[in-house]
Amino acid sequence: MRIDILTLFPEMCEVVLNESIVGRARKNQLVELYCHNIRDYAFNKHRRVDDAPYGGGKGMVMQAEPIFQCYQAVCNQSNLSQKPYVIYLSPQGNVLTQQKSIAYSQMDHIILLCGHYEGVDERVIEAIVDEEVSIGDYVLTGGELPALVLTDSIVRLCDGVLSDAECFEQESHYHGLLEYPQYTRPEVWQERTVPEILLSGHHANIEKWKLQQSLERTKQKRIDLFEEYIAKNGEK
Q1: What count of other Cβ atoms lies within 10 Å of the Cβ of residue 206?
Q2: Cβ atoms of residues 215 and 179 within 8 Å
Q3: What are the Cα distances from residue 180, in Å, to 59, 96, 169, 172, 211?
Q4: Quick check: 79 pLDDT over 90?
Q5: pLDDT averaged over the chain?
Q6: CB of 32 within 8 A of CB of 158?
Q7: N or C: fewer beta carbons within 10 Å in the chain?
Q8: CA 173/CA 188 separation, integer angstroms
């Protein structure tokens, strides 16, 4: 899989992409991750890529042409024959979910467009963007942090990145439930003990306990997810 990030701050993105699980996946060539500076495609000596909005208003708007030229350069670099799937990180977009990340992880090539200032010229969204995605109902300074969040959520689902599919299949949201409580050594910490069932070695009972805990935790913390899960799967 290949992910390209179109941004005004590639150095900011590179710091994160070279660390932890994503960094190891990149180093081991399990995924291709590239950052592109939109300013490199500006058509003025000051590398300016924004201008005042038509109709007035505070702030500046990123111009369509530098973004489009950056997008075309990425398409020309790629060996893939089909158009990459372009996502614009925007507070107006559909909220990111685990199911979306699963679907994205099965794609061959994704381009993430990071807006800034008051956003980007609507015409470039119409020309190249397939979907707008938000990481929550709030506004950030730019699209870089959302792009990094989205990249992390996708890369960890790609083949070979984690040691086993179970590493993410048992996590919160993958099957619609929140994850069960986790414990490690020591068995007793500040007079709090690990649930006895986890020490029993009875795998069938442990799995049953994990599911029950996931159900109870989801019902307690996210009743919306619980009701959706029960509607699809019935009572356990």
Answers
A1: 16
A2: no
A3: 45, 22, 12, 8, 7
A4: no
A5: 93
A6: no
A7: C
A8: 29
- Extract the tokens encoding 157: 């689902």
- Cα–Cα distance, 114 to 132 (Å, whole number): 11
Contact 7, 34 (CB under 8 A): no
DSSP-derived letter for residue 120 is B
User: What burial class does residue 58 get, using C-beta atoms within 10 Å of its C-beta: 0-12 exposed, 13-18 middle, 19+ buried?
Assistant: exposed
pLDDT score for 62: 96
Name the E strands within 130-189: 131-134, 188-189
Amino acid identity of residue 178, one-letter, is L
Do 59 and 118 touch, CB atoms closer than 8 A?
A: yes
Q: Could you identify the residue written with the tokens 């997008």? A: 71
Q: Provide the H-helix boundaries in the chain.
A: 10-17, 20-27, 64-77, 98-105, 122-128, 144-155, 166-169, 203-221, 223-233
Q: Two tokens at 140?
A: 């950030």
Helices and strands in the chain, H and E counts: 9, 9
The structure tokens 């699209």 sit at 143
pTM of the full structure? 0.87
Chain CA centroid to CA 152, Å? 5
Query: Is 205 in a helix, a strand, or coil?
Result: helix
pLDDT at 169 over 90: no
Torsion, Cα 119 124 127 129, to 10 degrees, reads -30
Give the residue from 236, 131, 130 showing the smallest Cα distance to 175.
Answer: 236
Once rounded to an integer, what is the mean pLDDT over residues 27-45?
95
Average pLDDT, stretch 182-210?
95
